[in-house]
Write a structure and sequence with these properties.
By secondary structure, the chain is an alpha+beta fold. 21% of the residues lie in helices and 31% in strands. α7 runs parallel beside α9, α9 packs antiparallel against α11 and α10 packs antiparallel against α11. Pfam families: Glyco_hydro_2, Glyco_hydro_2_C, Glyco_hydro_2_N.
Length: 600
């Protein structure tokens, strides 16, 4: 299924689609003149040109402005309306933050939320000729702390651990042609790792008697064929896979980072024996869970070796440079010896998740935080998470949802019962939306609910990590009575019954740049960098954690604490870094001697 490589929606592919990336007309309108003067319908000249999907703050966009709030886009597309009754669906993968879209002056979409995309059936707005004009207006507050913004800085220039902003269109724009009665969405949820799978297919334009046919295959072998009746726009059911390998060698068809087996899925919408629509998808068979000490993958203990992924590139910011860069990011994580990533304050590109599915990485899915707790900020966070789960529920790589980080957005969590209930509410909502994955309520400290206690401990001394977490007894004491970052590790006694992950640690900076943020410590050279990083990883391996997440994969602006620099180049030989991550201490010593010799 090579179409997955470039398709912006890899979990539901139709053949007739077209990218609308490229040069668009562009205007900055912070005075909000365009709304009053109706730029969506008047022949106003937009004075600039922008390369979509790169945000205007980025060099790759061709704009490179430091701060904007209101922006307009326009593009005239050469496309005639379909003459066979099919529909044209326009898709925006992400627009930050409030977006309105017009086609030929007809308003076709209004969307709030910067991380998850939206779509619109624009067929009835298409002009009879060849030229179709698409206009987009986006508003992204530069200062609001009620808006989920993650690590997008509200100050200029970027400071401490926050980065340059990403406004407007920042992921793929595309359209597809589809039948009026069509498959709208698909959700796969493994019930067991050995062959029971729940399928939920959303259908639009269905009539009584319509059905959905699903065929699952692997390497040419048919594992299941089933027909589900459509009722009220949905076809739902549990599919039993039949194959001798599932009985004799069930792990051969199970998904894991070490063996990322994917099963191809063909979906057809059928009416009276005729096929109305068809699409391709894929499935990974795996289950996740916990006992009181360990993370479980496919029912077995699985130590997590994660790395923090900021998903930020110097020339394109939160937009990936291209699809190849997303694949290369996954390959680098694997080459370094990690078996997963924690997305940090950004929702992953669907194509990145595809490569995690295909090449083998587990993912903790984070979302951008607001920094003030109000009814509006909480509502926006809830809405964002509903969209994230709906979009990404079928990716086998995603094993956990992380709704809050370090009490961002709930700053008085330690004393405010309302904020504690907000965290609990989101944990329960995510469990209800998706019972197949784990949920961390507030990662870092101040645990009030969730399936894992996440601890962020940036102790400069590896010995301190061992002293705090080096045995089950020490870990129990740290969770019950400990503090990290000046805050209690746990606010709820239920923390004693769930596993603990060192979900941020390290952060060692090795950079000679004058503006390097020194919050986690700076080392002078490669030898000191390797020694310090190796000591931290050894402490994480020697402690009683169910896993760890190192900060971080790449340098990002002034936060230069990556194992790789911002160009994705390793700061030490990658074989050595891999041995450190994997805790191969004999190999570490052999490779380390090469660095010492090189430095004289």
């Amino acid at each position: 299924m090579n179409n997955h490589v470039l398709h912006p929606r890899p979990q539901l592919i139709r053949e007739d689609w077209e990218s609308l990336n490229g040069q668009w007309e562009f205007a900055i309108d912070d005075a909000d003149i365009g709304s009053r003067e109706h730029w969506h319908r008047e022949p106003v000249v937009f004075p600039m040109s922008i390369e979509v999907p790169f945000p205007p703050e980025s060099p790759a966009s061709g704009i490179g402005v430091a701060r904007v709030e209101r922006v307009w886009y326009r593009r005239v597309i050469d496309r005639r309306p379909p003459e066979d009754g099919r529909r044209v669906i326009l898709h925006f993968t992400a627009v930050d933050y409030i977006a309105d879209v017009w086609v030929n002056s007809v308003h076709v979409a209004h969307h709030v939320g910067g991380s998850v995309g939206f779509s619109a059936d624009i067929t009835d707005a298409l002009a009879p000729g060849d030229a179709q004009t698409i206009v987009v207006r986006a508003f992204d507050s530069s200062t609001s702390l009620e808006q989920p913004r993650g690590k997008q800085d509200w100050e200029e220039p970027s400071h401490v651990i926050w980065y340059r902003r990403t406004t407007g269109i920042w992921r793929e724009v595309w359209w597809e042609v589809a039948p009026p009665a069509r498959i709208q969405k698909v959700a796969w949820q493994p019930v067991t790792a050995s062959g029971r799978l729940r399928a939920d297919v959303s259908v639009t334009g269905a009539e009584p008697g319509d059905s959905v046919e699903i065929t699952l295959t692997h390497e040419g072998d048919v594992l299941a064929r089933t027909t589900l009746s459509v009722a009220d726009g949905y076809a739902k059911g549990v599919i039993e896979l039949r194959d001798s390998r599932l009985e004799a060698e069930p792990e051969r068809l199970q998904w894991s980072p070490e063996s990322p087996t994917l099963i191809d899925a063909r979906i057809r919408l059928v009416r009276g024996g005729g096929v109305l629509d068809h699409a391709e998808s894929y499935v990974g068979l795996r289950t996740v869970g916990v006992d009181n000490r360990r993370f479980l993958l496919n029912g077995r203990p699985y130590p997590l070796r994660l790395v923090l992924e900021q998903a930020y590139w110097p020339d394109t910011h939160l937009a990936a440079p291209d699809a190849d860069a997303l694949r290369r990011e996954v390959e680098l994580v694997r080459e370094l010896g990690f078996n997963g990533v924690r997305m940090h304050q950004v929702v992953a590109d669907p194509r990145f998740l595809y490569w995690c599915d295909r090449l083998g990485l587990v993912v903790w899915a984070d979302s951008p935080a607001s920094y003030e707790f109000t009814a509006l900020s909480f509502t926006r966070t809830v809405q964002e998470w509903q969209g994230i789960v709906e979009r990404d529920v079928s990716h086998p790589c995603v094993i956990a949802w992380v709704p809050f980080n370090e009490s961002w957005g709930v700053p008085d969590l330690g004393s405010d019962r309302t904020q504690q209930e907000a965290v609990r509410a989101l944990v329960h909502m995510l469990r209800a939306l998706d019972p197949s994955r784990l949920v961390l309520g507030n990662d870092g400290w101040q645990y009030v609910a969730g399936d894992i206690v996440g601890i962020h401990d940036y102790s400069a001394s590896a010995r301190e990590l061992i002293a705090r977490y080096g045995s089950a007894e020490l870990m129990e004491r740290a969770v019950a009575d400990g503090y990290v970052g000046g805050r209690r590790v746990a606010l709820d006694p239920g923390a004693a019954d769930v596993p603990v992950v060192l979900s941020e640690f390290g952060g060692v900076s090795y950079s000679r740049a004058a503006d390097t943020w020194e919050g986690y410590g700076v080392v002078p050279d490669e030898e000191a960098f390797v020694d310090t990083v190796a000591a931290h990883f050894a402490a994480a391996h020697d402690s009683a954690f169910a896993g760890f997440c190192y900060t971080q994969l790449t340098d990002t602006l002034q936060e230069r604490n990556g194992l790789l620099n911002e160009a994705r180049e390793p700061k030490a030989p990658i074989d050595l870094l891999r041995s450190i991550v994997l805790d191969d201490r004999q190999r570490i010593q052999r490779l380390r001697r090469g660095i010492v010799t090189a430095h004289g």
